[in-house]
Amino acid sequence: MSQSNGAVVNQLHRDDLGAKLGMWVFLFTEVLLFGGMFLVYAVYRFQFSDLFKLAALELNTGLGTFNTIVLLTSSLTMVLAIVAIQKNKKNLSLFYLASTIGFALIFMVVKYFEWSAKFSHGIYPGSEELLNRQNGEILFFGLYFVMTGLHAFHVIIGVIIIAVLMVFVYKNKIVHDNYVKLENGGLYWHLVDLIWIFLFPLFYLIH
Amino acid sequence: MADGNAHVAAKSFYEEGTTKKSTGITSWLFSTDHKRIGLMYLVTITAFFFVGALFGVLMRLELMAPGETIMGAQEYNTLFTLHGVIMIFLFIIPGIPAIFGNFFLPLQLGAKDVAFPRLNLLSYWIYLIGSVLVILSLFMQGGPIDTGWTFYVPYSVRTTTSVSLPLFAAFVLGFSSILTGLNFIVTIHRMRAPGMNFFRMPLFGWSIYATAWIQVIATPVVGITILLVIIERSFGVGIFDPALGGDPILFQHLFWIYSHPAVYIMILPAMGVVSEIIPTFSRRTIFGYTPIAMSSLAIAFVGYLVWAHHMFTSGMSDTSRVIFSLLTYIVALPSGVKVFNWVATMYKGSIDPKPPFLWVMSFVFLFSIGGLTGLVLGSITADIHVHDTYFVVSHFHYVMFGGTGTIVFAALYYWFPKMFGKMYNIKWANINALFYIIAFNVLYFPKFIMGYQGMPRRYYDYLPEFADLQMLSTIGSWIMFATLVSIFLNLYLAIKKGKKAHNNPWGGVTLEWQTSSPPPLLNFDREITVNHEPYDFSQLKELDYESK
Questions:
Q1: What is the ipTM of this complex?
Q2: Is domain B25-541 in CATH 1.10.645.10, yes or no?
């Protein structure tokens, strides 16, 4: 045994439960990363609650709701991709993964239009229009751009991860009896979804 | 297990790697073997430690005499910032977990490697990228960062020096720290040898476990805080800018929510090493295994709730100050549990004062001074008198350098024969320990006195009445630097031409002493099963060890 190469050992050592444990621990770190932002949000919401309500009226609740539905649906297709691979239906799984990426891209496009609409109204960090407003509104939009921006960054990372997973499925690296990578990718995607579930009411719904 | 005379394994991990070629630089840089990764960390971290120490020596040179001695105020500001950034982010936070945790945690658990070997290599690469970014930032436009390692706003947003890049480097280094912690958590949960339940795990493992959780849970908070400062510098969002409604104190809260638990990232692994060394050199099982293990978790937990004691003078309600002061005192309880249990372990033991043990004794002495002066700082009234003076500087150097730094050397002396298969010059190591403790106190003790007399920290100049003590401290820095060079010279010569070390030179009973030195690629040449407590010295009768 001492003759065997370490790389071989690494492949032989398979621990799905360990892999998932590692993923969950990583998700904790993501929660705490956003946790810091939510803390900042909470402090300023407490300090400027009236102005936050006022500023929130300017966000487009319709688009926000649409994006929420899009992202929730993408979580569904992610789960369906895992179910498909469990049933050994490779092409179906690839289809669902592609749909997940599709929904993610729709989300980003809507996000793009939302942001550019704000920019065209002169609302962006450091803009003259924004600086003429009251402090609470400045902070609201500052947090809006930072938090949804950080979230959008995670969506992009998620798209890359899912694309890599598609390659794995295509090359039969992820198969019906070894799909923990896909599950972990799914966990990440659900977290991205879940963070949006909190961002949506905090920015769009509390008027 | 009983068969301690491990048959000499065919090849050590130096001769057989995880890559195709087993020698050469690529066989190290692309190795997923936890032992090679640990050694790569050892080399990199030692290099940065000497850079940081050199900066410290230069700062002391400037302070040798009143007025401008060798540099101006701006250079001094830069130097203390870099000294802090390098020592904190590149030396002491990764220090023990990345070097000794990587090398010895799997060995002590009877595992073949960590849970995610490739992730482990990735952590090292991220660490390397982060450290390169720190170095790059020195040559950026605007000049090197001068904010102090705490990056307090509003200055860090306003200064024209290069702040964003070193901040981003700290973010990257945090990522490395998180991934290392994650890896250790899963390793401890999933990779223990059959029979090794949590309470048969060596105490080093427990301390690494507690540390890993802090790394995972606290580091992201400083990550986002750092990102916010970068965003603030680039876009002027206003989150920390009072003119736009933001609050600079909020930065301090967010910063210390990570950075206070981070001091336990620094000290907990050191305490774990102490819990390994004391039983081995007392030939006696650890006194109070469970309390020591639990106190690690207790320190990790309570450590989250004390951050605001860094901010007693920043502006906070009296109620919060009293609460944070009280919680700060509570941290002393689990720390005390550890110290008393260590001392009780030595009672009626058969003490063998080899170098690792002497270094641990230096630790107990220096760390006790550091810990007790921590109580002075934890009480609100006393803190307001000595806040931001040399007293604080001295306190954390006693805790961090005298505590963790000392134990880095203790761990190095303890595990060196296992890592390299060679033995260093014992007499030389003992003399180093003596000089170290003298140099340390000459260097840092005068700072307690100066701080109490009102010498503020981070000034490149001072009033004439401090001249004598400053001079004394500077002389201490020279002895210290010479001692550090001497320590590594001894170890370097041992690698080059030291005599071959016995597989178990100290008579230790934890699993790493039951394999060859240096260990084979897969750590053991047999399957490990555990049926003993970790420090059951009755095993020694059956184990092979160097008796003397």
A1: 0.91
A2: no
